[in-house]
UniProtKB/TrEMBL annotation:
Residues passing through the membrane, by range: none
Taxonomic superkingdom: Bacteria
SUPFAM superfamilies given in the database record: Ribulose-phoshate binding barrel
Assigned protein family: Belongs to the TrpF family.
UniProt protein name: N-(5'-phosphoribosyl)anthranilate isomerase
N-(5'phosphoribosyl) anthranilate isomerase (PRAI) domain location: 23-238
Reactions catalysed: N-(5-phospho-beta-D-ribosyl)anthranilate = 1-(2-carboxyphenylamino)-1-deoxy-D-ribulose 5-phosphate
Pathway recorded for this protein: Amino-acid biosynthesis; L-tryptophan biosynthesis; L-tryptophan from chorismate: step 3/5
Taxonomic lineage of the native organism: Bacteria, Bacillati, Bacillota, Bacilli, Bacillales
């Protein structure tokens, strides 16, 4: 099993140094879109393998990545997105497509991250769905217990808006006041902390002003009429890169 070592944890958690916030653009659904998005320079791109209007086949994702590499593109970290998958489903995708990370909800199968780490050299990002009325509630306690249990076989915590229909990509924000709790938990466990859910070029600065986040993840907020819009993708990336050098800094942040 490729267990995450303490040194790697410290490095991933920043090792005491401020790291730039990484950007993941999720829901790549075609070669041309992939080419444009990669050209805009995100740190990570995501392919949705869960039931969704953004779902792609492993064969398509593999073909697009191979084509971009042939064209000489420097690929960002590639992330396969699942909701609550069966083990065999993720295994089959990872066998077919060279992915750097899988992102999934695992409350249905708490041993899934360890099972994946035993079979594949891949990062595991655990999605923690945030429902309404979360602060201090039993859901938060359950999520914390799960994260403590899984800490040795996951690399990152991804906070996302609870989406009962498909498990992500809702375009809705969650209550950002829960973030400091997960920030300190991620620091204690040596995990990266990403935030997703309803982000867009206009609100991501406010999120970042609310406190340190290792990465931000967006899908709906960089689309126009359901299609990735390269101007919004570029604006989102620029907004995150510029954070700390523009007027966002010190805005205070807060709930969505
Ligand atoms: O994006 C989807 O369609 C999706 C479907 C099922 C599970 C997860 C999904 N997306 C996960 C992501 O990583 C999204 O970027 C994240 O949920 C944020 O989405 P959005 O609120 O649309 O920005």
């Amino acid at each position: 099993m490729t267990e995450v070592t303490e040194d790697a944890r410290q490095e991933r958690a920043g090792g005491g140094h401020e790291q730039a916030t990484s950007v993941k653009i999720c829901g790549v659904t075609g070669l041309e879109t992939a080419r444009e998005i990669v050209g805009a320079g995100p740190d990570c791109i995501g392919f949705v393998f869960a039931p969704s209007r953004r779902r792609v086949s492993p064969a398509d994702a593999r073909g697009w990545l191979a084509r971009l590499e042939e064209e000489g593109a420097k690929l960002p970290l590639t992330v396969g997105v699942f909701a609550r998958p069966r083990r065999e489903e993720v295994d089959a995708v990872l066998t077919e497509v060279r992915l750097d990370a899988v992102q999934l909800i695992a409350d249905h199968d708490p041993d899934l991250p360890a099972w994946l780490k035993r079979r594949h050299e891949v990062q595991v990002w655990l999605t923690v769905p945030i429902a309404r009325a979360e602060p201090g509630g039993s859901r938060m306690a359950a999520a914390e217990a799960m994260l403590r249990r899984m800490r040795h076989c996951i690399d990152a915590i991804l906070l996302d808006t609870h989406d009962p229909s498909q498990g992500g990509g809702s375009g809705r924000t969650f209550d950002w006041t829960v973030i400091p709790h997960y920030r300190s938990l991620a620091g204690e466990l040596g995990l990266l902390l990403y935030a997703a859910g309803g982000l867009n070029p206009d609100n991501v600065g406010t999120l970042l002003a609310g406190g340190r986040i290792d990465g931000v993840d967006v899908s709906s907020g960089v689309e126009t009429e359901g299609i990735k819009d390269i101007r919004k993708v570029s604006a989102f990336i620029e907004r995150v890169r510029a954070y700390g050098t523009d007027t966002d800094e010190g805005n205070g942040g807060g709930a969505a």
